[in-house]
UniProtKB/TrEMBL annotation:
Protein name as catalogued: MFS family permease
Topology in the lipid bilayer: Multi-pass membrane protein
Species for this entry: Actinoplanes octamycinicus
Domain Major facilitator superfamily (MFS) profile: 1-394
Transmembrane segments: 20-41, 48-68, 80-98, 103-121, 169-191, 244-267, 288-314, 357-386
Stored PROSITE patterns: MFS
Amino acid sequence: MTRLDQGGLTLRQLGPTVYLPSAVYSTGFGAIAPVVVLSATGLGASPAAAALVAGLLGAGQIAGGLPAGVLVDRFGEQRTMLGAAALGLPALVACMLARDVRLLAVAVFLLGITGAAWGLARHAYLTEAVRPELRARAMSTLGGVGRVGTFAGPFLGAPVVHVLGVSGAYLVAAVAVTVAAALVVVLPPVPHDRPHAGPLDRPRLTTVLRDNAPVLRTLGSAILLVGALRAARQTILPLWGAGLGLSPATIGVIYGISGGVDMLLFYPAGRLMDRRGRRWAAVPAMALLGLAHALLPLAGGAAGLTVIGLLMGVGNGLSAGLVMTIGADVSPVAGRARFLGAWRMCSDLGNGGGPLLIGAVTAAVSLPAAALVVAGAGALAAMLLGRWVPPDRPSRAP
């Protein structure tokens, strides 16, 4: 196994310290993902209001990006993650005990903020600790364990929900957050788990944003489209299946197959980016996602939709760790965590905007039109990434 630094860390050695807590944390959030809407409707919310409450999770991630960068820069990764857990636990208890949809909405929004803080802390750590020639594999593995946790969470939560009702999912998440925080405390400390500079040496957030505005305008715009494409596929695939008259079970199987292919590709995607360069994964991934959306109007049944779901899974799998890797590549040494907070906010804006784009175009025109619009966004993302992503992989630290 290749070493990550002169101290002898390897990807395998990072597993317990870095990847295991993140996998547990993601499993908890995966457990609540299917039930937020059900909690809202159970409190009397209309379907539209329930969808809005669920969307506040993404809104919280967007709102939490910049503050999380400041916290990581000032207090370090470990304290930021423990702070996220300390805020997440009462938010989960509030979700569990809420008797008013407004309290549920506030709690879900807070959960989004905690997710942003946790994710940024891990991203900032790997950016600092991992040698550039292994960076994509480290980042794609982090993204991969997150996807595995999100995939496994609903299955772990289902038996508890069966016994305790919807509140059981929040209990599973609370246990997962507690275990993840405990792992952060008891596992050996990792390098760079500290504030990166003294108070006088830290650039202000406004300074970091101003100095890196050209990168955020160009590559940040492309990353926004990447986030939109990823989120759009999660929305449009089940909507198309419902439009074809497929049963929920069949749609679930197709969605699961697509997700399974996605998860299998996270390490090969990172290896490809490390060996050949970021463009070799970025451009094909967005092109495949765009092509899959363009082919949706041709899917006339379960078989066709399965093929398109597989294509989406391959495209999304190739992009595993892409946003984090490129962000690490272009991040400045001074104010790095603050820059990464802005970088992740670009992606989170896309994640929130993708489903909204589909809804708006579908309402104004039709679902096939929405698929074609997203396909166009995929072509544009591939073009922008091909133009602005550096052609060669980094071979040394900045």
